[in-house]
Amino acid sequence: MDMHDLLINSYGDIFESELLEEIESIAKVVQFKEGDVLIDYNQYIKTMPLLLSGAIKVMREDYDSGELLLYYLERGDTCAMSMTCCLGEKQSEIRAIGEVPGEILMIPVQKMSEWIGKYKSWMAFVFESYNNRFNELLNAVDTIAFMDMNDRLLNYLFEKSKIENSNVVYKTHQDIAKELNTSRVVVSRLLKALETEGRIKLNRNSIEILVK
Amino acid sequence: MDMHDLLINSYGDIFESELLEEIESIAKVVQFKEGDVLIDYNQYIKTMPLLLSGAIKVMREDYDSGELLLYYLERGDTCAMSMTCCLGEKQSEIRAIGEVPGEILMIPVQKMSEWIGKYKSWMAFVFESYNNRFNELLNAVDTIAFMDMNDRLLNYLFEKSKIENSNVVYKTHQDIAKELNTSRVVVSRLLKALETEGRIKLNRNSIEILVK
DNA sequence: GTTAGAATGTAACAGTTGTTACACTATCAT
DNA sequence: ATGATAGTGTAACAACTGTTACATTCTAAC
């Protein structure tokens, strides 16, 4: 699929045609792979990314060691931190890493703010995005504050399954432990119990979800 | 202090004078006490509050029972949820409760969005607010994800001390337990240990912070 | 003063999560 | 085939948090 089709596909319904044309003439398409670090802590960001395909995971890091998955970005999403950084002169508080390979559109800072005054649909999109990210952060809070590790693990598997669009999750126990900020042994223990209950099937490097 | 002075005090530096005049002619001042529920879950919000004085705590509730303090709003702050609700037709995901008595300016929805196109300073304020709330939520995530209960408790005491501008925190163990989503016994136990270490002094209905 | 209720102190125990240690298996490069 | 490495299984234990139960103290209302 070329850029035009991807753009129409993800943003055709929400942006007016002049804006779509302007985006197409200005934005650069960047491909990313799994594991690519798209934004890192303390980084200044000069372009705003619009996700065309694939998925990006947004992580938060502790001051010394821990790390935690906050949420995934998917087609049609953008990163709240980028908007913030573009509008102010702020450093990123999060890390964004490719999870499912895909493509992003990079919008230069000046355009980002210029369009807010120029296109109603762009302004609405920016606010809508802030709102969505805010609510996703609230969800992350709910998860870590109110769920035990078993439910967080299940929740993780379901979320990951959703963005992969598959019942098989290709992750090692160690990977999962890192994203949930726990230890590998704990993950293995809980997964094994879930397998015994018949809810999942464990394989080397992958987990199949049997019952949702 | 009358409304004019309060307004100049908190927002005089960031808003242009025409906007300040317009706010003064349109906004209503509302006094709130400790415990007043200013915004509740699932509520539709039709006015945007600007905090002139006092402090407001923002809480998140679990589907069944738990509750958790996310952050405090202080002078010059506004509520991200209100902005969201005003711009879209969304319901509140949080509860806002008066913590330190004070006053808020209520801005009608229409003005809120009208001003975004009309005043650069207002737009900047709205984005800045979104950004601040987002970062405060990230802080809340850090706290619950990476700190143990003892550090969360200390952190709570310091934050509360800050908004009260006093080393004495007037809260019962039960109050604190509720805001940290834990149990009273746990709070009492940890507080007693902190007292033994000489970091705080316990009294009925209040806690004095000795060492920060 | 008596009494009811709220706030606090504390013990004992249960459940969850984190840590250490080690065994075993699969995979890959040589 | 051999060895190295990564991934997984599991036990034993430690640490932290949550629960139940009950005693004590303080305060306000009568």
Automatic annotation (TrEMBL), chains A, B:
Keyword Transcription (UniProt): yes
GO cellular component, one term: cytosol
GO MF, one annotated term: DNA binding
PROSITE patterns tied to this protein: HTH_CRP_2
InterPro entries: cNMP-bd_dom, cNMP-bd_dom_sf, Env_Response_Regulators, HTH_CRP, RmlC-like_jellyroll, WH-like_DNA-bd_sf, WH_DNA-bd_sf
Keywords noted in UniProt: DNA-binding, Transcription, Transcription regulation
Domain of life: Bacteria
Pfam families (alphabetical): cNMP_binding, HTH_Crp_2
Domain HTH crp-type: 147-212
The protein's name: CRP/FNR family transcriptional regulator
Source lineage: Bacteria, Pseudomonadati, Bacteroidota, Sphingobacteriia, Sphingobacteriales
